[in-house]
What does this fold into?
Amino acid sequence: MIQEAKLSYQCFDDSFLTACSDFGFAFPFFFLPAYAESMKLFMDTANVAHVAEVAAWGVLDGVTTNPSLVAKEGKDFRQTVLAMCKLVPCVSAQVTATDVEGMKAQAKEYARWHRNVVVKVPMTTDGLQVLAWCKRKGIRTNTTLVFSAPQAILAAKAGASIISPFIGRLDDAGEDGMALIGEIMAIWPHYGFTTEVLVASVRHPRHVVDAAAIGAHICTIPYDVFQKLPKHPLTDTGLKKFLDDWATVQKRNQPMKSRRLIAGK
It folds into this structure.
């Protein structure tokens, strides 16, 4: 597998490698034997209306929730999760217990709610036990509150379906959150981990672009950042110019149409 990865690395042209080097990552920061599917876009929310709105764009692949987001909305947790499961194929629902047996019980309960539910488990030693147990039971999991490569490795080895490194919180603490994503993505191909890397705690559109450039599997995005992604001032001015020009053409052609009508009489 390492040999295949090296061959894949050699296939990148010099301009691509130079651009990535300028991006700030030491090589090799990732190897892919073939092009992956596009990065999945999740929404980080507990607001069902926001999920429905962005899902209608045709770009939303899932949702991540947490107790803080649920508390902010003030709605029933189970009903919120079920409503979102009707809109997207993957909804992460976080356990609130912190002990092994409590988390197992909640994981079992959440998994029964809907086939689209992924159980969110904290990155603790008890959480690792629960990840391994869920793996044996066929329950999909998302390890939350990941802040280092060692934590990511442990969660993947324990059987997590997804891991969620929090890049924004690392940035807030004076660290480089996106560098952690690059480090994790450099590690993954060496060992064939099937665990998907989800970029969490996204603060602005640049985080989304950087996550895609590094090759992260998933990026979970707040509603307000989602609203910024399709917008650009030049798009707005360009569209206005097109419509104004078209209105001018229509106005210019109107007298000609009127003369033809009169002549036809």
Q: What stands out?
A: DSSP finds 13 helices and eight strands in the chain. Residues 234-265 form one domain.
